Amino acid sequence: MPTDPIKERVFRALDTFAIEIPSWGFANTGTRFGKYIQAAAATNIEEKFADAAEVHRLTGVTPTLALHVLWDLPNGVADAPKIQALVEKTGIRAGSINPNLFQEAEYKYGSICNPSAEIRAKATAHLLDSVAIGKALGAAEVSMWVSDGSNYPGTQSMRRRIGWMKEALAKTHAALAPGQIMLVEYKPFEPAFYHTDIADWGMALELARSAGPQAKVLVDTGHHYQGTNIEQIVAWLIELNALGGFHFNDRKYADDDLTLGSIDPYQIFRIFHEILFEQSKGGAFKSPAFMIDQSHNLKGKVEAMVQTVVTAQELYAKASLVDQDTLAKLQDSCSLVDAEEAFRGAFWQDVRPLLAEWREARGLPAHPLAALRESRYVERITEERREKNAGGGSSYA
Ligand code: AOS
Ligand code: ZN
Ligand code: ZN
Ligand code: ZN
């Protein structure tokens, strides 16, 4: 049987591709103006695991669920056995553990960067508890988004807060199990609107480095100013062995948390290209954690999650079509138009038929969204959860 090199390349890429889905993607969310209640939204952790299992059944590439400590394990590490039971029941493993340093009123002026030593200690204890949860569940990453910052110039000492942050991160790092990774996420603004304590990848990188070797940077694609060359940041982080993972989503204006690839699919393709370029060199590169961080306020949640996963696979498959050797030669000879054509030519390929073939070869539904509709899963959970959501649903479930 003649082998098809294109198909082989795409299949090889797809076989190693997995993406983590967030528990908060199944719960009721909204905007700062109000919450949009969906009858089918998950109202508790059992339902979140059930939704995750359905997405995994349909796509085969979402074996882990990111957990949010405050929302999913309100009693901290004491809730780990309950989660473990759900892992066993559904076959979905615990993914990244996300501490919550932003919701409690006490954190109004900051958590680990708060001028109050007492509040800093409380926030640090929460980070240590998150590490303990990760250990109990065998979760690979503790994923930290620190929302600390200030709204007005002169109201906080940026310098002293750097010191407090370093102290808390070092303590957290010291508690990690071997192999456990601490991810440091950055974001330029929101909820703070003058200064954010970890505002960009340079700050995140320096903080990760000062915390220790198991700390890496997390790139959320929605956390950059307009026009930022995100793939260049990714290239640098790979170069520095500091890329820990991604929070994928898309945006038009700020941290919009829209469906990956809905606004600018070429950008995700370019990011994947940097990963695949490094992989093609055949070294010891450990692929970063691919995670989804989206809030579907208007779309149906399970449907949107399946659509996201499928889109991520399509863009990854497209990026795998870039012929690295050919591209390198064209770059060396500065054949600009041909190099660009070799690059964007891969982007313009329709890989959907190949994806359907790959899925069938792996015993998965060829068309996950159609299979979701046929299963009537959404109709079923809508009926089951309607009552529970009628009163407004619990916040973030
Ligand atoms: C917030 O903007 C960050 O993207 C967080 O990573 C994320 O949305 C959050 O951790 C969910 O709480
Ligand atoms: Zn994020
Ligand atoms: Zn965000
Ligand atoms: Zn985001």
From TrEMBL:
Biological process annotations from GO: L-lyxose metabolic process; rhamnose catabolic process
Keyword check for Manganese: yes
GO MF term list: L-rhamnose isomerase activity; metal ion binding
InterPro entries: L-rhamnose_isomerase, Xyl_isomerase-like_sf, Xyl_isomerase-like_TIM-brl
Residue ranges of every copy of the Xylose isomerase-like TIM barrel domain listed in the record: 78-275
The UniProt record lists the keyword Metal-binding: yes
Keyword annotations: Isomerase, Manganese, Metal-binding
Top-level taxon of origin: Bacteria
Record-linked PANTHER family: L-RHAMNOSE ISOMERASE
Protein name (record): Xylose isomerase domain-containing protein TIM barrel
